[in-house]
């Protein structure tokens, strides 16, 4: 499992939970999906615009820099494949492939509720 590749793919416009699952099912790993050719992305079932967006994102996005920035603020990224990904969240359709966290989850947090949104974020 590669957290940096999950982060990278999650930065691609048009790739959300459903397309991330599509890529994982086709390529087997997020690393293979991240490095796939345009033709292979199209064969995997991505549309042309999303496939091209992935190729473009690879050119400009630096996953190691992103991990450094997270570390600098004391945050971490948790993916579907991480043991610390909230179990109850895994049970939902459309759960986010990557969560950014400060601190740790305690057992009593299993029933916690959070509301997340990005509309008009400041």
Give a written overview of the molecule:
With 122 residues, this protein is mainly alpha-helical. It is 48% helix and 8% strand. The chain is built from seven helices and two strands. It has a two-stranded antiparallel ribbon with strand order 1-2. α1 crosses α6. It is globular and about 45 Å long. The termini are far apart.
Structure keywords:
single chain; 122 residues; mainly alpha; two-stranded antiparallel sheet; 7 helices; 2 strands; globular
General form: globular
Radius of gyration from the alpha-carbon trace, in angstroms:
15 Å
The assigned structural class equals mainly alpha
Low-confidence stretches: none
What string, H for helix and E for strand, traces the elements in order? HHHHHHEHE
Q: How many β-strand stretches? A: 2
State the end-to-end CA separation: 32 Å
Largest sheet: 2 strands, antiparallel
The strand order across the widest sheet is: 1-2
Strand content: 5-15%
Number of helices: 7
Q: Into which percent range does the helicity of residues fall? A: 40-55%
Average predicted confidence as pLDDT: 90
Short recap of the structure:
This protein is mainly alpha-helical. It has seven helices and two strands, in the order H-H-H-H-H-H-E-H-E. The chain is globular, with a radius of gyration of 15 Å.
